[in-house]
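[READ THE FOLD]
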Amino acid sequence: MDGSISRPEWLLEAEDLHLAFGGIQALSGVSLGVEKGRISAVIGPNGAGKTSLFNTLSGFYRPQRGRILLEGRDISAVSPDRRAALGLARTFQNVALFRGMTVLDNIKLGGHSRLRAHPLSAMFYFGAARSEEMALRHEIEREVIDFLEIDHIRHLPVASLPYGLQKRVELARALAMRPRVLMLDEPVAGMNREETEDMARFILDIQEERGISVLLIEHDMGLVMDIAHHVAVLSFGRLIGQGAPAQVRAQPEVIKAYLGESASRRAA
């Protein structure tokens, strides 16, 4: 894979991010970019700052220093819901679904941020609100549910599903937002090999067929090395290496801090 990065092609960019909680420095001068239409990965040991980075990019945390750019626009002060409307969608390390609701209703929640109906019509569910709701449902059924092969579970409550399918439903909800950048926090954590292979296939299809930029956090080095075009490595809140997978795998500081010699050879 070609891991070269051209700055003008970066869709999402973090510049010199600093984030601290009391005396704990979660991020120390982290700068990285997500290239348009490509898959980028952030790796590192537990406590490296990966989820803090995701929370900062998506607006849940405000950095003490640095800025976040979306296609050159500074969105550092933009609220999480506005960032979602601008095209940043994410999943979470722990499944964050409404367990008492059906699969379809959970997915539809992802698309509601795009609805434009007047609040009064939405309250009484008539006119534009009804039309938008029906259009959203048809779009979700055609472009999300069928795409992720979950038609057979659409009317089941999320709580009744095995963990792997719940992760797929969470991915479906993020896709319903029509993202420009899809941020996936450990998308295959806790999955068996078959579920991991299915998720890897879906992520590749999202990038290749839909042109959506993907930024993922993942501990499965086989998955990262197979599908990512660019890899960034965090350790104790610092960026210690980045580049194409083959380049990162060979960097001494990365091997020492995270991969280890044997893991580096296995990933090769």
